[in-house]
Amino acid sequence: MPKTIACFGEVMMRLQVPGHDLLTQADTLRYSFSGTNVNVASALSRFGHTAHIVTTLPASPLGDAALAHIRKLGVATSLVRRGGRWLGMYFLETGFGPRPSRVTYANRAESSFNTAPPDAYDVDGIVRAADVAHFCGISLAMNDVVRAQTKALAAAAKAAGRLVSFDCNYRPSLWGEDGYALAKPHYIDMLRLADLVFMNEKDAMHILGMTTARQDRRERLLELIPAVAQAYDISVVAGTHRTVHPDAAHSLQGYLYKEETFAFSKKFSFPVYDRIGAGDAFASGILHGVLEDRSSERIVDFAAAAAMLAHTVSGDSPMSTEPEVERALAEATDDIER
User: Fold this and answer.
1) pTM of the entire structure?
2) Torsion angle, CA of 68/117/42/294, rounded to 10 degrees?
3) DSSP state letters, 63-122
């Protein structure tokens, strides 16, 4: 049965350099609007749910453009507040061969979302409107006010019996020097509130400081994730392992830990057109399967296939419908659909 999801976080303007040029070469940029909350909400709306974003946009033509773009994605905007003057931006240079893609942030600290007052959001109203509240670790990296807003909304959702979803999504560039130590207490607060968490063994080791004698990555996962789930009373933990091949193709496999049992997806290998947002596609696939009460094997296969498809379209926001993901999962041919 379709559910209503509220996704909290910042909306940003994405400014992409054409083709594989560098910023120092280009004289034009293509813009769109995105953010992890937008990406998850966009995917879930395509899977048949009602998805809201909870954010603050500037009361300006730029904010109007962001709102129009979000609505085109099928995302509900009734929980968006307007205020402040700026929108955070990031510039994307698409890599090629041995040169990786590069993201450069601009104006983020002064954005409407990151300067919204402590009491900006109607927490009780948001909780009443949603069955699920989804959060991302990127919000924890912003500032003390945003951290407090994140935790307050998560705590209210938890107290009201809503499903609380949290994607660790640790970004070293946002936390700066001694980032893991700075992030740890805030991540622990969110893990204690979350029912469904997106993370892998690297998060357990680096953010939480857990140790293991295992050397193999999968063996570390099998040891550490159950320990995290037990320590913080988390019902579902999910994540991915990715391999980047010498020819720039990627392989991806998802995992789901539920009821003290691991399920692993098929391993998908594919060329990459645009990698940004693929993790949000995976998270959306997991959320969709959990809300539909599907088997663990079906959930994680669907989520991994959704992540694969997100690599094949331009832009951050996943664009695949459920039938399209199911076709990819069934290893449909590359023939043209007519």
Assistant:
1) 0.94
2) -160
3) HHHHHHHHHHTT-B-TT-EE-SS---EEEEE--BTTBPPEEEEES-TTSTTTT--TT-S-
Q: Which tokens is 113 given?
A: 């979302």
Longest dimension (CA), the chain: 55
Q: Residue 287 and residue 294: Cα distance in Å, rounded?
A: 10
Per-residue pLDDT of the chain (338 residues; tens, 9 = 90+): 899 999 999 999 999 999 999 999 999 999 999 999 999 999 999 999 999 999 999 999 999 999 999 999 999 999 999 999 999 999 999 888 788 889 999 989 999 999 999 999 999 999 999 999 999 999 999 999 999 999 999 999 999 999 999 999 999 989 998 999 999 999 999 999 999 999 999 999 999 999 999 999 999 999 999 999 999 999 999 999 998 888 778 899 999 999 999 999 999 988 888 888 889 999 999 999 999 999 999 999 999 999 999 989 888 899 999 999 999 998 744 443 32
Relative to beta strand 132-136, strand 196-198 is unpaired
Q: Give dist(CA 88, CA 9) in Å, integer.
A: 12
Reduced to 3 states (helix: H, G, I; strand: E, B; else coil), residue 78 is coil
Starting at the edge strand found earlier in the chain, the sheet holding 30-34 runs 30-34, 12-16, 89-93, 102-106
Distance of CA 335 to the CA centre of its chain: 31
Based on DSSP, count helices (H) and strands (E) in the chain, helices before strands.
12, 15
The amino acid occupying position 195 is D
| Burial of 4 from C-beta contacts in 10 A (0-12 / 13-18 / 19+) | middle
